[in-house]
Description:
Strand content: 35-45%
Mean pLDDT: 93
Low-confidence stretches: none
Oligomer: single chain
Largest sheet: 7 strands, mixed
CATH superfamily: Gcn5-related N-acetyltransferase (GNAT)
Strand order of the largest sheet: 1-2-3-4-5-7-6
Amino acid sequence: MPNDPRYGLRHATAADISFIMATERLEGYDAVVGRWDEERHLREMAGTDCTYFVGLRNEMPFGFAILRGWASPERVTLLKRIAVCELGRGEGSLLLRMIVGHLFHSTDAHRLWLGVFPENLRARRAYEKIGFVAEGVARGSAFFGGTYRDELTMAMLRPEWFARAG
Length: 166
């Protein structure tokens, strides 16, 4: 799948928000993927801090990602959210690889980081498979579902990505 011509990546537009919102709300994501309403997505998309991407399979959306600090002067980017429509097909890992590759090839970013709930083992394995390294637990750093939750911080550095990519 990595070089499969059926798959691609593009910047999301306001027209993609209904797809993004539907994907955020899929069964099983309520405990691990954040949800915003349309107004918040429009505001974030129109601002300068968030960059949205849609993963495509045969030109149809299969997932999305939101990044903060794309091309930031600090050269540090946060993977805020990533989700796919169908779990178990390997498309989440594929979308993640496409996002990471695009970031490191298109910007001078040095670090890509994310927070994952420690009990979300499926996501953690996917991040580790791509090359993210666990750095530590940020206690009570996520206000999610009305409560404060711990997040495991994971990151990948530019040299690590290029060493893995060969």
